[in-house]
Design brief:
Elements: E1 2-5, E2 11-12, H1 21-29, E3 47-48, E4 58-59, E5 65-68, E6 71-76, E7 86-90, E8 98-107, E9 110-119, E10 125-133, E11 142-145, E12 149-152, E13 156-160, E14 166-170, H2 174-178, E15 187-194, E16 197-202, E17 205-212, E18 223-228, E19 234-245, E20 253-259, H3 271-283, E21 289-294, E22 310-314, H4 328-337, E23 341-345, H5 357-364, E24 366-367, E25 377-380, E26 384-385, E27 400-403, E28 409-410, E29 417-423, H6 441-444, E30 451-457, E31 470-471, H7 485-488, H8 493-499, E32 556-558, E33 566-568, E34 572-575, E35 579-582, H9 589-595, E36 615-620, H10 628-636, E37 644-646, E38 656-660
Parallel strand pairs: 13-17, 20-21, 20-22, 22-23, 34-38
Antiparallel strand pairs: 1-2, 1-23, 3-19, 4-7, 5-6, 6-19, 7-18, 8-15, 8-19, 9-10, 9-18, 10-11, 11-12, 13-14, 15-16, 16-17, 24-28, 25-27, 26-29, 29-30, 30-31, 32-33, 34-35, 36-37, 36-38
Length: 687
């Protein structure tokens, strides 16, 4: 079975072997939601991926690569040349959207940093390369090793169209940019990959930028490696290698799959094989979904979960559950509170009631509780399938023997359940001896009752799906599902109306009129998501959904400076993982986050735009303009991640949804900083 929890979509309890394959794929591709900030060991989100003393986590030919004096060293000599380009490969993970910072020094020859590349075997790599050259020609360019060759020279921004044609824009003098580079000395290299845009910076200067839209040639994910070039003797050194994963661009979502360590014989509890099967199914779905699998119980990549939209566990449960080891329970709990989805398949749904139980209830709404839930094998027969429901479309009545868990522990109240698949377990499944998995008096007393093995729950007036394996709530009886498409998707009337809204009518964005009322709530969806027939998105993936209490029409007024759109006299601020708050109109966002929202938002410079500690990430409602001071400090710090803004330079004049990405907790600072003034400082110059 599988438990999955997402703020916008929640799935629970799918049988493991036969029936689950089709609905599970549908469940996971809809797990997209609000973006989140990276969860990393350092306050700025970067994590070291070289320990400074050994090549642990890296692999290359030992005759060429070593760790010396705090640096990775690649070296060839006249006596020990390499016949072809050879690479040191980072083995702890692969890269999608990211930012990497490191320092390099080169003596003779040519090198480079491969990213989103292909491992061709024998430490040969092909793909994007941030070039490094001991001469004056190639450092900073975009080169595709074993591919299209030079894509962008130093001083160029090159846009590559789908048909491979290039459009070049000059962004600097090649010779002047060369003067920024220190020959034979340490230089700082920064690479930013955001979807199709690939940017190379050296010592703070943009050297080249490539926008690669040639979909049949470009790469959205792949390995990280360091190059040692064939030819005359050379030496290249790398140190202070730090990685930060960033929110995936272009509306893509990311699912991280974790397979447990092997614990059974062949053909039993095949965690790796099962997880790879799920990944293969999802990759073939055509969805805007990036999947990555980590095996052997837990990722070795310290950044593995940082830009995940959902995490999927298929592993042993109980006290040996991989999530319960070390400090991982707290790590995943922090991610779940930020909106990351959590899925558990089969035995991974079981944790002890005392450790893990409360967290699983919060993450997914339920779990397998020892001495309460049962896991008998039985032949599923006389099933009842919901009629005309998307999940059961094409599924015929069936009979199969499997380990059908039931009587799960669910978060109360468990009302609003729409049955998708139900059956009556044989009485024999309730007659086994009492034990942590086998039986208990409560289960025994339920002989003859129908169990919901697969269900959908519409909760809170907005789209939330949950799959249950629990007794059928008596208030539902045997009611039939409505036939309307939107109702099939688990939406009530208010949510259907919200789903049909034009995107420009969300969150007070200038639309020529106020958003329509929807009872007590309104759906917030990601920019650019256009509702299709029946209120369903015409784009793959899910948009972010949040509870945003609506203000009465009388409290919403015309904005004098945002194109005549509508703003709220008492705006609503949704803080991911914290709650929804009404704040005074015109109040600075940085102080509202502290005063009304009760967060530990940093503002080290006192809110005068001299630093970026007050940054937040917008989920929705990002202001369309910014102050000159905000623009300049973001540019100076090299912050280009979409949605990242300075809360000290924003006023609360409309509804917003944000993540607090720069907090006192974990920053190492004594306090959050001097309290900002009531008005924006310095005096705003709007750009």
């Amino acid at each position: 079975m599988v438990f999955v929890r997402r703020r916008s979509v929640e799935w629970r309890s799918i049988p493991v072997r036969r029936f689950w394959a089709v609905p599970l794929c549908m469940a996971l591709v809809t797990l997209g939601g609000a973006p989140r900030a990276a969860v990393a060991a350092e306050a700025d989100g970067f994590v070291p991926i070289f320990n400074g003393t050994s090549l642990e986590g890296w692999e290359g030919k030992p005759e060429f690569w070593s760790a010396q004096d705090g640096a990775i060293v690649g070296q060839t000599t006249a006596e020990k040349p390499t016949k072809g380009n050879t690479f040191l490969i980072w083995r702890q993970g692969t890269l999608d959207d990211f930012e990497i910072r490191l320092s390099y020094r080169i003596t003779g020859g040519n090198s480079g940093i491969q990213y989103r590349s292909r491992d061709l075997g024998d430490f040969v790599v092909g793909g994007y390369q941030a070039d490094i050259d001991s001469g004056p020609t190639y450092t900073g360019i975009q080169y595709e090793e074993r591919g299209r060759g030079i894509l962008a020279q130093r001083g160029e921004r090159v846009s590559i169209a789908a048909d491979g044609t290039k459009k070049t824009e000059v962004i600097g003098s090649k010779d002047e940019l060369q003067q920024v580079i220190k020959p034979g000395d340490w230089n700082d290299y920064r690479i930013v990959a955001e979807g199709a845009k690939l940017s190379h910076f050296i010592n703070g200067k943009l050297m080249s930028e490539t926008i690669d839209e040639q979909t049949d040639k470009r790469s959205a994910e792949g390995i990280l490696a360091l190059q040692l070039h064939a030819g005359p003797p050379m030496k290249v050194e790398f140190k202070d290698i730090h990685l930060k994963r960033t929110r995936l661009a272009d509306g893509r979502k990311k699912l991280v799959l974790v397979a447990g360590r092997a614990s059974h014989g062949p053909g039993e509890h095949e965690f790796r094989a099962g997880t790879k099967l799920v990944e293969k199914c999802l990759d073939a779905s055509g969805q805007q979904l990036v999947t990555v699998t980590h095996t052997d119980g837990w990722p070795t990549d310290p950044t593995a979960f940082d830009n995940a939209d959902a995490i999927f566990f298929f592993a042993d449960g109980g006290g040996g559950h991989p999530v319960l080891q070390s400090n991982r329970l707290g790590q995943i709990d922090a991610l779940a509170k930020r909106g990351v989805g959590v899925a558990c398949l089969h035995y991974a749904v079981e944790v002890p009631k005392e450790k893990g139980g409360p967290e699983f209830l919060n993450w997914m709404g339920g779990y397998f509780e020892p001495h309460w839930s049962v896991n008998p094998h039985w032949t599923l027969a006389a099933t009842e399938l919901a009629k005309e429901h998307p999940i059961t479309r094409g599924v015929k009545p069936f009979e199969t023997n499997d380990e059908w868990y039931y009587h799960m522990r669910f978060k109360e109240p468990a009302n609003g359940l729409v049955p998708i698949l139900s059956a009556v377990p044989p009485d024999a499944t309730r007659e086994r001896p009492d034990g942590p998995h086998s039986n208990n008096p409560t289960v025994r007393a339920g002989k003859g009752s129908r169990e919901v093995l697969l269900g959908l729950r519409a909760a809170g007036g907005w789209a939330r799906l949950r799959l249950h394996r629990c007794p059928l709530p008596p208030q539902l009886g045997q009611r039939r599902l409505p036939s309307d498409d939107a109702q099939r998707a688990g939406l009530d009337g208010g949510s259907r109306r919200a789903a049909r809204r034009c995107p420009q009518r969300r969150l007070g964005r200038g639309s020529g009129g106020p958003p329509r009322r929807q009872g007590a709530t309104e759906m917030i969806t990601a920019p650019g998501r256009t509702p299709g027939p029946g209120g369903r998105s015409t784009l793959p993936g899910r948009a972010a959904v949040a509870d945003v209490p609506r203000q009465p029409a009388a409290t919403r007024v015309r904005s004098p400076h945002r194109g005549g759109g509508w703003e709220s006299a008492m705006p609503q601020i949704v803080v991911e993982g914290v709650g929804t708050f009404t704040v005074p109109a015109g109040k600075r966002l940085v102080t509202a986050l502290v005063d009304e929202c009760g967060t530990d938002q940093l503002h080290a410079c006192g809110g005068v735009a001299r630093c970026t500690t007050c940054r937040v990430t917008f989920v929705a409602g990002e202001p369309p303009r910014m102050t000159k001071a905000e623009r300049d400090v973001l540019a100076a710090k090299g912050i280009t991640t979409p949605g990242v803004r300075l809360s000290c330079q924003i006023t609360c004049d409309h509804d917003m949804a944000v993540q607090v990405t720069s907090r006192l907790a974990g920053s190492g600072r004594v306090d959050a900083g001097k309290r900002p003034a009531d008005s924006i400082e310095p005096a705003p110059e709007w750009v």
